[in-house]
Design goal:
Helix content: 40-55%
Largest sheet: 8 strands, parallel
CATH superfamily: Metal-dependent hydrolases
CATH class: Alpha Beta
Radius of gyration: 16 Å
CATH architecture: Alpha-Beta Barrel
Number of helices: 9
Order of helices and strands: EHEHEHEHEHEHEHEHH
Number of domains: 1
Amino acid sequence: MTLPLDIHAHVASPEKEGGRRVISISPKDLHWSVVLGAGGDYPCISVGLHPWQVDEEWEVMVNECIVPALSMPHVVAVGEVGLDRVKGGEWGCQIAAFKAQVMLSEQYRKPLIVHCVKGYDDLIALYKSIRPMQCWIIHGFRGKAIQAAQLTRMGFSLSFGEHFCTEAVCACPLDRLFVESDESLLPLDTLYARIAGAKGVSVGRVEEQVRKNVEGLFLKSV
């Protein structure tokens, strides 16, 4: 397995991937079946019901789509899942769907890719209550340094993309740091260069540590 250097991305052409990205898909995405069935082209996939797609039928989607997918060897993570007070579904359904997928992360021993918008108090409360064994990675983290320090001390990891707070990158320990493209058109090398510059270390140092971080997360799942 080629270790991915991009923890969270959306669909791009397989020829461009080279195994460097974890492609995130959700059951309601139009390309769900195509990507899920193309393990050779997309060797690293994360699956989850996105909070924007949570409705009263969330349980059916999780049981009929997410659960079977998690047995596939190229599905290496659960996500993106999470909490969104701005654009997500009904809050009670979001909480229930999130907790159910956390339990799947624990059951299948796969890390959790977390989407969180204005829901950090609830997210932290759930983390303390559940006390997960699997790593929770907050994708696209844009918070401030004090929040980054608080979250990483608790056990969260943070993934930084095109838009990030320099001070938050500085506050995030390298062993809790990941890099992602999400929907950015920036080359992955450019993202690494920007994050390394914010961190004050070489690009090679960031790449080396991210490889170690990814290895600890994913190799046991494939």
